[in-house]
Specification:
85 residues; alpha+beta; 3-stranded antiparallel beta sheet; 3 helices; 40% helix
Length: 85
């Protein structure tokens, strides 16, 4: 039986992987962005997210796409570079 998976990651060890989705607190920790700003970006359609909940429940889990947050932040960095000084 093989102990290692392709790329040298051992079974059950996910520390070297980047998550696809995160909760609001995870995204805050990863990127240093405040909760209110995240919800504004979601409302404006700048980043992708989904609320996962069971039918009939009012509350669920908000998951945010890490790639969409990274892409949005990088697009803002590119826009700043393009501005004349």
């Amino acid at each position: 039986m093989m102990n290692a998976i392709q790329g040298g990651i051992r079974r059950g060890n996910f520390t070297q992987l980047s998550p696809e989705f995160g909760r609001v607190t995870d995204i805050q920790r990863m990127f240093g962005v405040k909760k209110g700003i995240l919800y504004r970006w979601i409302g404006e359609g700048r980043i992708k997210s989904s609320c996962i909940r069971d039918r009939g429940n009012l509350k669920g889990i908000r998951l945010i796409s890490v790639d969409s947050v990274r892409a949005y932040i990088e697009s803002q960095m590119d826009a700043e570079v393009a501005l004349p000084v």
